[in-house]
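Structure tokens please, single chain.
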Amino acid sequence: MLQTAPNIAYLKAAWAAFSGISGVNAQQSYEAAGLSFTRINHSTLVRKNDVQVSTMPIHYTRHELRVGFLGRIENEVRKAVFEMDAVFYRDLCLPEGHRLVIELEECLRMLRRRGNRSLSILVEPDGSMPLDAAARVDMRVFLDSPRACLFACAVDASGQVDLLEDAPKRARMPRAANYAELAAQISATLNEAFAAFPRAQLAA
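Here you go.
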């Protein structure tokens, strides 16, 4: 079965709808949150502005509506991660003895529990061999639109070097039209940083 791409317009609208009736906005009216409802047969279509963000039964609670938003968001997040993982597998050149870790299940657990909207993707030693110096990368990927924050360093006995110290802000905080493009941008930035890894190690 072909994996479909995440619906970016839906993600943005669904997160906005969720935020409009959650947290500090928990008591806000549906109208003030920009939500509209249309009853069709035995279902209620929920829209945020012009985007359909959920389908609910005739009777439902505010809590059930929030849970419904997060359930649909989770489906799109899984698609986004699948898309990014394929690009990383193709494009990202990891230093020897390192692995890529996508903390998807922890991300989804926090999404369902708290409406958390970020995903951690790490590069870390895989334990397969002794390393004089290790690269450690934390990519914070945001789930409401294709954007991220990157942190990368080389660590050895002498200390730590920021591998992205000279990278421009747009490389440290990339934005893209979709998650595949975001992963490609991140891969290019990290590949360049990893290429300087031995020199950074000597400078530590």
